[in-house]
Protein backbone atom coordinates (compact mmCIF):
# COMPACT_ATOMS: atom_id res chain seq x y z
CA UNK A 1 0.00 0.00 0.00
CA UNK A 2 1.30 3.44 -0.90
CA UNK A 3 0.40 5.73 2.01
CA UNK A 4 1.42 8.80 0.02
CA UNK A 5 -1.49 8.10 -2.30
CA UNK A 6 -3.94 7.96 0.61
CA UNK A 7 -2.66 10.53 3.10
CA UNK A 8 -1.35 14.04 2.52
CA UNK A 9 2.14 15.20 3.41
CA UNK A 10 1.01 17.06 6.52
CA UNK A 11 -0.81 14.00 7.83
CA UNK A 12 2.16 11.75 7.13
CA UNK A 13 4.45 14.23 8.90
CA UNK A 14 2.16 14.21 11.95
CA UNK A 15 1.92 10.41 11.91
CA UNK A 16 5.70 10.11 11.75
CA UNK A 17 6.19 12.68 14.52
CA UNK A 18 3.80 10.82 16.83
CA UNK A 19 5.34 7.45 15.95
CA UNK A 20 8.81 8.67 16.89
CA UNK A 21 7.63 10.41 20.05
CA UNK A 22 5.57 7.43 21.24
CA UNK A 23 8.05 4.79 20.02
CA UNK A 24 5.36 3.20 17.84
CA UNK A 25 5.13 2.16 14.23
CA UNK A 26 3.38 4.50 11.82
CA UNK A 27 0.88 1.70 11.24
CA UNK A 28 -0.01 1.62 14.95
CA UNK A 29 -0.44 5.40 15.01
CA UNK A 30 -2.79 5.20 12.01
CA UNK A 31 -4.67 2.28 13.57
CA UNK A 32 -5.18 4.36 16.74
CA UNK A 33 -5.54 7.74 15.02
CA UNK A 34 -8.48 8.83 17.18
CA UNK A 35 -6.41 8.55 20.33
CA UNK A 36 -3.97 11.08 18.88
CA UNK A 37 -6.55 13.58 17.62
CA UNK A 38 -6.10 12.59 13.99
CA UNK A 39 -9.76 12.24 13.03
CA UNK A 40 -9.20 12.73 9.29
CA UNK A 41 -6.44 10.12 9.29
CA UNK A 42 -8.76 7.72 11.07
CA UNK A 43 -11.51 8.30 8.51
CA UNK A 44 -9.08 7.72 5.64
CA UNK A 45 -7.73 4.58 7.30
CA UNK A 46 -11.23 3.14 7.72
CA UNK A 47 -11.91 3.81 4.04
CA UNK A 48 -8.63 2.07 3.06
CA UNK A 49 -9.35 -0.91 5.31
CA UNK A 50 -12.76 -1.37 3.64
CA UNK A 51 -11.09 -1.39 0.20
CA UNK A 52 -8.77 -4.25 1.19
Give your account of this protein's structure.
The protein has 52 residues and is mainly α. It is 63% helix and 0% strand. The chain contains 3 helices and no strands. The protein has helices at 9-22, 26-31, 39-51. The longest helix has 14 residues, at 9-22. The N and C termini lie close together (10 Å).
Query: What would the principal axes of the Cα set say about the shape?
Result: globular
Topology as a string of helices (H) and strands (E)? HHH
Tally of helical runs: 3
Q: What is the residue-averaged pLDDT? A: 82
Structural class computed from helices and strand pairing = mainly alpha
Major sheet size, sense and barrel closure: none
**Helix coverage percent:** 55-70%
Low-confidence runs (pLDDT<50, min 5 residues)?
Answer: none
**Backbone CA Rg:** 10 Å
Total strands: 0
Distance between the termini: 10 Å
Strand residue content: under 5%
Question: What keywords describe this structure?
Answer:
52 residues, mainly alpha, 3 helices, 0% strand, globular
In terms of topology, how is this protein built?
Layout: H1 9-22, H2 26-31, H3 39-51
Amino acid sequence: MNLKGEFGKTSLDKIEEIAVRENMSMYDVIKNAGAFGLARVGASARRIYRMY
